[in-house]
Amino acid sequence: MSALEATELYRFFHAGDDEVVALRGIALILNAGEFTALRGPSGSGKSTLLACLAGIDEPDGGVVSVLGERMTRRPEPERDRLRARHFGMLMQSGNLFDHLTVRTNIRLQMEISGRGRPDEIDDLVRSLGLDGLADVLPAYLSGGEAARAGLAVALAAKPAILLCDEPTAEVDAATEQLVIDRLIESCRSGAAVLVVTHSPALAARADRIINIRDGGIVHD
Ligand SMILES: Nc1ncnc2c1ncn2[C@@H]1O[C@H](COP(=O)(O)OP(=O)(O)OP(=O)(O)O)[C@@H](O)[C@H]1O
């Protein structure tokens, strides 16, 4: 079953007279239960694609539909509501509120989405190798720990669609396997998972690998 469908996505950015075509006609279907790795060189459009799929950014052309509902070209509050209901997101930054502990960040996500229970937080945090860090503020976390805490927030509401930008950057090999196992567990529970990654270990365990270059898919 398709969880997300994108048709012919285009996104242009302008800097003075220069135009950057960040996405040039990307069509994509993400299926429930499928673990997809998204690869591409720096500047190829990976983060822009994630932002457009999640309705954080609006594509200049094309349509994104989420579980049969159109996300594109709807007022921002409606897109926010769709995202809160269906998506878990790990972006490159800005995943945690700095003035809230990891536990409170996770609990807030549960409250916003109306799913997940506070008594699940300790297990979730442990499953990502963050034992003993539930009650600290983000400032006390290393880069890799902060990314995993952000992933805990993304996973908290058991989203139908999970989009992650480099979830295993800055971690050792053992922790990387822990994160990959947790992503696969989410897939096996029915989530459609799309992960931007440069990690061969992660790509090796994906059901599907999509390569993009210059804003277009070169291999799927
Ligand atoms: N807000 C913006 N304004 C202008 N140009 C932008 C903006 N966001 C992205 N771009 C440009 O769009 C292109 C795609 O950028 P994007 O960040 O999506 O690539 P990426 O593959 O995620 O790169 P990286 O791996 O380095 O994060 C790049 O040329 C980038 O400079």
UniProtKB/TrEMBL annotation:
Domain of life: Bacteria
GO cellular component, one term: plasma membrane
InterPro entries xrefs: AAA+_ATPase, ABC_transporter-like_ATP-bd, ABC_transporter-like_CS, ABC_transpr_LolD-like, P-loop_NTPase
Keywords of this entry: ATP-binding, Nucleotide-binding, Translocase
Domain ABC transporter, chain residue ranges per copy: 4-220
GO molecular function: ATP binding; ATP hydrolysis activity; transmembrane transporter activity
Entry's family note: Belongs to the ABC transporter superfamily.
Name the UniProt record assigns to this protein: ABC transporter ATP-binding protein
